Amino acid sequence: MFNDYIDYYAVLNLPQQATIEEIRRAYRKKVMDCHPDLFPDDADKLRLFETVKEAYETLTHPQKKQMYLEERWRRKAGGLSVEGTVFSSVEYLKQCLALNRQLAAMDAYRVSEQQIFQQLNNLLALEKINALKDTKDSSLLRSVLEALMPCMRFLSFQPFLKISDLLMQLAGDDLLMKQKISRMIADKKSEHRKSLWKLPIILLLTLILCLLMYFSNTLS
Predict the structure, then answer these.
(1) What is the pLDDT of residues 20-29, one digit of tens each?
(2) What is the CA radius of gyration of the chain?
(3) Are residues 106 and 155 in contact, defined by beta-carbon separation less than 8 angstroms?
(4) How many alpha carbons fall within 13 Å on the CB side of residue 129?
(5) How many C-beta atoms surround the C-beta of residue 105 within 10 A?
(6) What angle do CA 98, 99, 101 make, to 5 degrees?
(7) Separation CA 128–CA 170 (nearest Å)
(8) Cys-Cys with 55: which of 11, 14, 38, 43 at CB 3.0–4.6 Å?
(9) Which one of 1.20.1250.20, 1.50.10.10, 3.40.50.720, 1.10.287.110 gives the CATH number of domain 8-77?
(10) Nearest in space to 71 (alpha carbons), one of 6, 3, 10
(11) Which tens digits make up the pLDDT trace of 43-67?
């Protein structure tokens, strides 16, 4: 499952007080929207179907339901959300595009590198990468990559390399996108090497200037 916690009542569009019969009716209605026989090539629908089935089996089995309700109560008591949702590639792409638009209008002095890194790292969590690959939708993967790659311009060298590695994993067998990511890495490495020489060069020039001023004063 994509999330550690799923709100089974929300999956079936039911209140927590729903009866067994209401759960059964909701299940029968919901599976018609995502059954693999009706949507054989839709990974999102398959994932939803599996979650709907799990929700039904949990909420109609007394022992499983009790364990689920106890976990739900513990999350509430701990201040955690009980609104877990099923992964949707469409919603995921919207999140990536929203981040891209947000950062496109900003400069490096107005953003938090740590916050951007965390956002990218969360978006590229392994389970999300696997879920995206399961869709087998190459155009979707490219859209995600092209939305996230520009966001990396705010990252320093080491965070940049980590996110690049995750993007490479997402690119999979897409050679064109892997080449683009590789070029970004090469440019970042070149920029990093230049930055390493920048301070020593400045110090050297400062020293030379000081020596010239010293000898100039001495000779005069």
Answers:
(1) 999 999 999 9
(2) 26
(3) no
(4) 16
(5) 7
(6) 65
(7) 9
(8) 11
(9) 1.10.287.110
(10) 6
(11) 888 888 999 999 999 999 999 999 9
